[in-house]
Amino acid sequence: MSQETVSEQVDEAPLFSWESWDRIKYSEGFVFAATTAFVLLWSWLFSRAPITSELGGYHSLATTMLIWGIFALGFNLLLGQTGLLSFGHAMFWGGGGYAAAIFAIHISGDPILVLVVGTLFTLLLAVVTGVIALRLHAVYFAIITLAMGQLLYYLATSPLRPITGGRNGLTGVQIEQLFGIAYLQEPLPGVFGELWVNYEYLFIALVFVLVVVFVNRVRKSPYGLIFRAIRENERRTSFVGLNVWRYKFAAFLMSAGIAGLAGSLYTIESQFAGLSSLYWFTSGEVVIMSVLGGVGSLFGPVLGAILYLYFEGVVDGVAIIGRYWLLMLAVVFTAIVWAYPDGIWGMIKSGGAKVRAKLET
Amino acid sequence: MIESAIRFVYLSLSIASVYILVAIGFSIAYGSLKFVNMAHGALYLLGAYIGLFIAFEPTVGGTLGNYSPIGLALGFTAAIVLVPIILFGIGVVMERLIAKPFYERDMLDQLLVTFGILIIIQELVAVLVGRGGLSYARPDWATGAVSVSGIVSASRWRLIVIALTALFLILLYAFYKYTDFGLAVRAGTEDAEMVEMLGIKISRPFALIFAIGAGYAGLAGILGGSIFTVQPEIGLDILIPALLVVVMGGVGSITGTILAGLLVGATFTATASVYPEMATASIFLLAIIVLSIKPSGLFGTDEVVA
Question: CB–CB of B120 and A139 under 8 A?
Fold first, then answer.
């Protein structure tokens, strides 16, 4: 019965209306579907499709971009939602990566377990650092997280060398079969191989989709709304009777956990955990990515990660202009903070809104 | 016993000197103008390179490599005199062009934009002179050892660094304490709005203090450059410990910055002699401990934290 009435309505309505598009666009189901479609096509579009691959993309870069995209999504949960700028997220990315590598080398190389252990270690680290860092505000928070990250970096460099391998990092991370079925590096047959190359890509893509759905859920939930209230005005939020510290702590843990998850994925993908993953410039990179793409949106940071890695991985190799890649990025980054705080994603969005306003009239 | 004590003090001071000189400019700009200037690290970087080109004719890589050796070769003394003056000028320009549009904006925006500018300047320098390390050739009068109180011998250059730092800190303190400009700055740090209402144009003393901070960073660039290697990343490398010194001392407090700098120098030297592998890490640990106990820093007031 109800099925029929729905189809009748659709028959009467015009084929396409902006209202129904808006309804679809903001639904969580659409975000899930769009993200799935994106990851399924991404590697092919970026590295093997007829026209778009002319831009110089390659499969392993497409994979790395997804992993960094997860990192940026996690980072932005803290900066974009809660308004806390952490300059030490490398400690979670690198910490998760090292924990995953150590677990894989000494105990078990099961990919799922490696991810779980990497993420759990990061959460533990976040509990300890969060308790101290969240007492501070704004710039102080940025600086103490930076200090914590650097402390970990220098600890990993020499005092903990027996565990972390010092400057050489941890090589020889062996990852076992996924669910005992297939090795991640095994190529996929036929058209699947053309689309996704190997199991590893699908594995990472799955985690990516799950993280997007999770972050979107948080953003849309009343809980996430309180994060945003804290960003707008911490004092007022506490006057309403909410325990601000608890929400900040929760946001910090989620953000760190996702960063650690991404770091563990990176270890699985590269079969290596190195010191540079803990170095503070890694924190700087994720800040640049997020701000470049746009901190106010869900996908902005992912776009930023893709752009940043594209410059680092492809433009860097281009003759003459190649060695200016970081300079170009820094100029764009500065210009965006200066004049357009919504980032590139926000730019696209407002451009789209203008086009739509023209179409509607 | 006395020998090692003297050695300890002298090593601590020489490490603290460079950090304090960098940190002090950042600290007063943050305290008085409420401006977070990550690009302060770039001033140190520029100081080191400009000093190098004034003092010698270094052979460089990068775009300028085609013209090398390039430089004025005026000697080290000239560089020490000229660089702070040049950086003072750069500071004036920076305050007008970069800091001023951001006074009314969010602190995180200031932090991010100046971080971007720091990377731009670093990359520009890398393009111009290459990423290779350069070093200062010290003049005769600054090399060799000198005997301190007849007991231990110390590197003469490090003593000069300490002396110069002390001199410039005393000058800054006197400026703060005994001039009308300094009085206006101190009042403005407390309550800028009130000072404006009393009819004092606070923007000028603030710009002056900003530029003085830039000059000090430039001086630090020369002194630090002659102790460590000069390469494009030094701006960032020095900024991180300097930031720790700033927040540990309490933003805007000269006394706090100096004290925190000495504390960092002493901690570094002490750890280096007991457990060298932890030396750098100990600075960060110290900062975390200090900030956990007193979130606004040693001499900080809670108002600045917001």
Answer: no
B213 within a domain of the structure (yes/no): yes
Residue A263: domain span: 58-279
Q: What residues have CB less than 8 Å from B304, skipping those under 6 apart?
A: B30, B31, B34, B250, B251, B252, B296
Pick the residue of B106, B119, B268 with the most A CBs within 10 A to test the interface with A by mutation.
Answer: B119
**What's the rounded Cα separation, in Å, for the pair A104 and A111?**
8
Q: Tell me if A158 and B117 make a contact (CB, 8 A cut-off).
A: no
The number of folded domains in chain B is 1
Domain CATH code at residue B97: 1.10.3470
- How many residues are listed for chain B in this entry? 306
Burial A157-170 (b: 16+ CB within 10 A, else e): bbebeeebbeeebb
* Model confidence band, residue A35 (pLDDT cutoffs 50, 70, 90): very high
Q: For residue B93, tell me if it sits in a domain.
A: yes
Task: Answer whether residue A28 is part of any domain.
Answer: no
Q: Give ipTM to 2 decimals.
A: 0.86
Asked if residue B14 belongs to a domain, the reply is: yes
Size (chain A), residues: 361
User: Residue A118: inside a domain, yes or no?
Assistant: yes
Question: Is B275 contained in some domain?
Answer: yes
In a domain, A300, yes or no: no
| Percent of chain A residues past pLDDT 70, beyond the cut | 96
Q: Which residues contact B148 (CB under 8 A, 6 or more apart)?
A: B6, B10, B154, B159
Q: Which residues of B touch A (CB under 8 A)?
A: 30, 36, 101, 107-109, 111-113, 115-117, 119-120, 123-124, 127, 236, 240, 243-244, 247, 275, 277-278, 280-281, 284-285, 287-288, 291-292, 295-296, 305-306
Residues of chain A whose C-beta is under 8 A from some C-beta in B? Answer: 83, 85, 132, 135-140, 142-144, 146-148, 150-151, 154-155, 158-159, 280-281, 284, 287-288, 291, 323-324, 326-327, 330-331, 333-334, 337-338, 341
pTM for the structure as a whole: 0.89
In a domain, A209, yes or no: yes
